[in-house]
Amino acid sequence: MAAFIRELGEVWSRQKRNWRTVVTRQIFNRFFNELTLQYTNIYITLLGASPVQLGAVNSVMGFAQALISIPLGVIRDRFNIRKIYLFGVSILIFVPLLYAMAPRWEVIGLAIMLSGFGMMVGSCVMICDLSLPDRDRATGRALCEGTGALPTVLAPTVAAVLITVFGGISVHSIRNLYWIQFAIRVILFIYVYRR
Length: 195
Fold this sequence. Notes:
Layout: H1 2-14, H2 17-37, H3 40-46, H4 51-78, H5 81-101, H6 106-121, H7 124-131, H8 137-165, H9 171-194
Helix pairs in contact: 2-7, 2-8, 2-9, 4-6, 5-6, 5-9, 8-9
């Protein structure tokens, strides 16, 4: 076990700073995504969406991702990957802001569409593919996914505690989670931009 952990540490230290930066962002981003995830459909319903409207608004992300996929491939071939990644991460800042400020459920459709675009444009997969040497690619990707998944185990419990502190399940309480997520995404963008 000690040899395995040592090997993971060696893989981590061999990598370029841009990969380590993206993985660090991924770890925190996944935690704060999970913070709101279990309350999203409840929130949309509390904002007035019927079951059919809820299904329709949740379909928007797939549409957005399909729409951007082919042009994004061309863009990635022709432009600076770091700038493209930063653009995607900057788009994702506005997603929790739209959720937090949404007066009605329809606004969530725009947030979900932006999320679809941002996730595709700001995908860390490109950084992994370009940054990791062949000998570390599988281990590096597993390290990214594994370390990114660990904080998500705690996020639902932390979210439940926060919702309780904020007064129980309500639009106001869930909005507070989105404000927290917004603040963290701004901080994470600054972190990635400066590195």
